[in-house]
Amino acid sequence: MFNIAVIGASGYTGAQLVNLIVGHPQMTLKHVLVSENSADAGKTMAQVHGNLAHLSQYVLTPLNSDLLAELAATMDGIFLATPHEASHDWMEALSAGKAKVFDLSGAFRLKDTEVFAKHYGFAHTSVDCLDKAVYGLAEYQADALKSANIVAVPGCYPTASLLALKPLFNAGLLDTSMRPIINAVSGVSGAGRKASLTTSFYEVSLQAYGVLGHRHTPEIEAHLGTQVIFTPHLGNFKRGILATVTVKLKAGTTQSDLDSLYESVYADQPIVRLRESFPKVDDVAHTPFCDLHWKVDAESGYAVVASAIDNVMKGAASQAMQCANLALGLSATQGLIHGYE
Amino acid sequence: MFNIAVIGASGYTGAQLVNLIVGHPQMTLKHVLVSENSADAGKTMAQVHGNLAHLSQYVLTPLNSDLLAELAATMDGIFLATPHEASHDWMEALSAGKAKVFDLSGAFRLKDTEVFAKHYGFAHTSVDCLDKAVYGLAEYQADALKSANIVAVPGCYPTASLLALKPLFNAGLLDTSMRPIINAVSGVSGAGRKASLTTSFYEVSLQAYGVLGHRHTPEIEAHLGTQVIFTPHLGNFKRGILATVTVKLKAGTTQSDLDSLYESVYADQPIVRLRESFPKVDDVAHTPFCDLHWKVDAESGYAVVASAIDNVMKGAASQAMQCANLALGLSATQGLIHGYE
Amino acid sequence: MFNIAVIGASGYTGAQLVNLIVGHPQMTLKHVLVSENSADAGKTMAQVHGNLAHLSQYVLTPLNSDLLAELAATMDGIFLATPHEASHDWMEALSAGKAKVFDLSGAFRLKDTEVFAKHYGFAHTSVDCLDKAVYGLAEYQADALKSANIVAVPGCYPTASLLALKPLFNAGLLDTSMRPIINAVSGVSGAGRKASLTTSFYEVSLQAYGVLGHRHTPEIEAHLGTQVIFTPHLGNFKRGILATVTVKLKAGTTQSDLDSLYESVYADQPIVRLRESFPKVDDVAHTPFCDLHWKVDAESGYAVVASAIDNVMKGAASQAMQCANLALGLSATQGLIHGYE
Amino acid sequence: MFNIAVIGASGYTGAQLVNLIVGHPQMTLKHVLVSENSADAGKTMAQVHGNLAHLSQYVLTPLNSDLLAELAATMDGIFLATPHEASHDWMEALSAGKAKVFDLSGAFRLKDTEVFAKHYGFAHTSVDCLDKAVYGLAEYQADALKSANIVAVPGCYPTASLLALKPLFNAGLLDTSMRPIINAVSGVSGAGRKASLTTSFYEVSLQAYGVLGHRHTPEIEAHLGTQVIFTPHLGNFKRGILATVTVKLKAGTTQSDLDSLYESVYADQPIVRLRESFPKVDDVAHTPFCDLHWKVDAESGYAVVASAIDNVMKGAASQAMQCANLALGLSATQGLIHGYE
């Protein structure tokens, strides 16, 4: 059994991680932590998260520097479901011991510190950790993850986008006269657990935001290998992302070319489900799956690929768990899919 | 044309009032105001309320004591869509002139100041105004409203509940061995326009609140004439209230007794629609109507009455407009129902 | 007062038309009709549409050929909220008299009968009517509508898309190396009032459909003047469409170019609201408005334009009313916007 | 490993059962079946249920009389997620062998065949099976379930209602001058997977139905031991039930009496979570839990108890699994709660 800690367990992603760890056959949840001045410190998981009302044995402990060192020395795995700044500041201490660290913030996803500073609003000074960090898009990084000590778990939109686009880019099928156009809609859990007029129930209604400037654009571009136009939207649902990707293909590319390509790339990836029709967000809500479907218009050369994930699961917690499974020497889907493990 | 001001126009009820006044054939909107330290002061209605994006000519003015006096002297009607304390504090000044004042807060709904203090958390010191205030349940107060200078517009839950229950109580049909049981579900607009974890999209899901202690209980009881058990719930929708009322009837009361009773009481009340089946919340959302339907189980003597309103309209703004129409000598439904006016 | 009939009043669009006509200061609703074998024949509007429970005076009459001739001879305006085939078959008779006919189906929107047959599945044989039909995108066809006898009211997606794209195309600002990419999400009312597993509550969740083959693609292309990639989605809300349009602009086009362009094109069009930020679907739900906002990335040359409408209103009924107002010699917004008329 | 079959796997409850069985550490899913003339026969679970897109190995087989006998002889457990009539007709054959049968329809829940015929519309002729059937309210029937061959899995509303009320009734705390008043709201999944105008997305909005006549009333009464007033509502959400129960207590009953009572009754029942505040529907959605909270008004003697379950889980599939676990000699929560099993 591996000993595990979750830092940031008062948020939605932290709660989902806790739930996955508690159900994992080879992990023991040893600590659930929050920042030093969190209003939730001292409460149980049951008190903070209604859906975890049976988990009254886990008390949210406020983090401090002594604890950072202790966790690094004693844990096998540490999940960071924390703000970018906190992950950035704590990574060096947390990764100094035997623990492998899985960071769900954006702090270690961009190797280019200039681009980072522009999009995250502060300078990156944890450069050694940044060098070591493996970008944990699990289906593409199995080998690197096996020896990783620091994992930057991908963002929700990048996960949905990259799983749709990487096969096309890697196979050289994209006509580069036009950037891939990614339109994505996310459920409100993506905004995190906090009071805000923007995400209050009466205010939420389908709307574009972060247009032509969202920080997930450089993340997608860095890990895809080419530039994109990415337009995120807030949707009136709780969980899930649907990314609809429109691309122009190299002349002569056919529907069956893409069929073969996706089948080949994802043949041994049980988390990616190649669907017979365009997926719904609720097909993947509360699951670790990414559902893909695509259609080619041979006449015009355009294709549309849709990619659906649960933003809290494959877009955060269950992808982090895939990474942890691999880093700890387990099967990638351990604790995630019944019957596959 | 009557000159009208709305105080508290940055909230949902204020916005609805503005929209009704702009469309009213005999009213001119002269002022839209907010509290002195509102973050919305200086913005236009268009900037604050996306659905009123065409109303850029109305600028939210911060209120002060000079303005209070000016409004009292120059307006024909003033709508107060303000916190209880603000309405309480400003009423004396606002009602000192020619203006008739329509208060949508809870400040003037309870004549008993002890009960008021217990439920609102502060002592009522505007006792003269409280004496003069008419409780504006429009279908029952047409005469009093015609000469009213201060109107306490009823709360949303009391409106739905009283329109269902008053016919039964007034006709002496309630078996008093059991209190009427009111279960009601409100849309999230009822909580107002503010950031709060409780009303954030991800948190909202059907839930009882204020159980056996909500401040609308004494309001219902005072204006019904008997005690009730009232259990409000927050529902996952934006607008509307459904109140499901269960009562025990005097022995021998039949379905046709209730049919005749409701038809007789509401014969000339176009806002109350007696339905052929149990109403949905969305039948009345964005409308001024109250929909009623009922069923009697003659064998057991129990009956269920359902009452549906839009909490922002009949539960607030459109009922205030009914009151204003009557107080200003117009037809009650002026500006509210096409074809009736 | 103009005498008006609505054919197809048992559907959602028909109900919305009835509600608009009843509130229109210069129209009298004379007939509400359904197809000869409709299950709703003989019922009142109140019985079929819960939100119109106050309209018990309007009885749904089954249509037959005698009535077609009578309506043509006696009505000033006829709204057809009927299936494509019905509109196609009835138009010749309905337009043979004094009545002006406003068809909300797709039967008369495509002048090219080959394209029509491919997308609608039957041959167009009402060619004279098709020749006469004016495409009623009201903001662009005011002159033609004034003398029109047959109006093809635009589809919901084309309305949202064209109001966003026509200024750019007409000004020659589109870089034609890439087709405009239209991603749109529609509320479920767009699917009409009928039992279907696809639109059952439990099944509805954000999903692309009609990918690279939807019949609104040729409609957009015909009335825009260039080809597009259009991907519609079904969203988990009742009313509204958000179209997010991504285009590549001619080199050197700036944000202020587009600002000036949209302001100039829509200066005198009160239905089109140029917003200061990206619009939400609920900003326009239950309203006649189209809300537009745009952003240019000068570096890459790409721009994103968002367009929001209520699919039942500006995407159907209120746009039909704009057309009728113009065709009957009234102001375009009569009966639609309080305060402008 | 126990061999298991699911009959009726094309519905929502059947799909949930399949998902639970596939994840169960001691069960093997051998057959998924549908009725002989189902349109889904021959399809895979993946094709019929988007959320089970990874389960393409399970093909829906049409049931026939030969198969009934084979299943009875070879299976350890059979789940029937079928219409009342089908369960009624097939039970004798299915229960004739070694298999234990868990019926999720209403066919075997009412011992009184007169009451049954009145509420289900057909005469009960499988009387031997009815005699043998154990009502599977798992928290109250652990002993009987251990030796049961036929289990009538309780209805969704009765489960929520009985878990709230049985402690009060059994302890003799109910003042019988008034019937318990149960107001409950169910998500739309409760209506099953079928096309219907009533459950189409645009039509769904909070509404009472089955008022003073729903078939779950006699089921609650039979298994509680006293009469109730039960008013179900359809809510605008996919999964879950919230039952709000209002009762009058024997004079002198206090909050702490109820606190002690519920804690004592459910001390060893991990599926029932006694909450510190009133539960939300989404606290239990997609979980096997029943969440309870209560409040007493000592002055009036009334109390309100709220009970939340997922109608597809504790209201159907996961309760059936609790029953199966017990009947097969396993721990009740096996395969249901991580960490407890």
Automatic annotation (TrEMBL), chains A, B, C, D:
<keyword id="KW-0055">Arginine biosynthesis</keyword>
<dbReference type="Pfam" id="PF22698">
    <property type="entry name" value="Semialdhyde_dhC_1"/>
</dbReference>
<protein>
    <recommendedName>
        <fullName>N-acetyl-gamma-glutamyl-phosphate reductase</fullName>
        <ecNumber>1.2.1.38</ecNumber>
    </recommendedName>
</protein>
<dbReference type="GO" id="GO:0005737">
    <property type="term" value="C:cytoplasm"/>
</dbReference>
<dbReference type="InterPro" id="IPR058924">
    <property type="entry name" value="AGPR_dimerisation_dom"/>
</dbReference>
<keyword id="KW-0560">Oxidoreductase</keyword>
<keyword id="KW-0028">Amino-acid biosynthesis</keyword>
<dbReference type="GO" id="GO:0003942">
    <property type="term" value="F:N-acetyl-gamma-glutamyl-phosphate reductase activity"/>
</dbReference>
<dbReference type="InterPro" id="IPR050085">
    <property type="entry name" value="AGPR"/>
</dbReference>
<comment type="function">
    <text>Catalyzes the NADPH-dependent reduction of N-acetyl-5-glutamyl phosphate to yield N-acetyl-L-glutamate 5-semialdehyde.</text>
</comment>
<dbReference type="Pfam" id="PF01118">
    <property type="entry name" value="Semialdhyde_dh"/>
</dbReference>
<comment type="pathway">
    <text>Amino-acid biosynthesis; L-arginine biosynthesis; N(2)-acetyl-L-ornithine from L-glutamate: step 3/4.</text>
</comment>
<dbReference type="InterPro" id="IPR023013">
    <property type="entry name" value="AGPR_AS"/>
</dbReference>
<dbReference type="GO" id="GO:0051287">
    <property type="term" value="F:NAD binding"/>
</dbReference>
<keyword id="KW-0963">Cytoplasm</keyword>
<dbReference type="InterPro" id="IPR000706">
    <property type="entry name" value="AGPR_type-1"/>
</dbReference>
<feature type="active site">
    <location>
        <position position="156"/>
    </location>
</feature>
<keyword id="KW-0521">NADP</keyword>
<dbReference type="GO" id="GO:0006526">
    <property type="term" value="P:L-arginine biosynthetic process"/>
</dbReference>
<comment type="similarity">
    <text>Belongs to the NAGSA dehydrogenase family. Type 1 subfamily.</text>
</comment>
<feature type="domain" description="Semialdehyde dehydrogenase NAD-binding">
    <location>
        <begin position="3"/>
        <end position="148"/>
    </location>
</feature>
<dbReference type="GO" id="GO:0070401">
    <property type="term" value="F:NADP+ binding"/>
</dbReference>
<dbReference type="InterPro" id="IPR000534">
    <property type="entry name" value="Semialdehyde_DH_NAD-bd"/>
</dbReference>
<dbReference type="InterPro" id="IPR036291">
    <property type="entry name" value="NAD(P)-bd_dom_sf"/>
</dbReference>
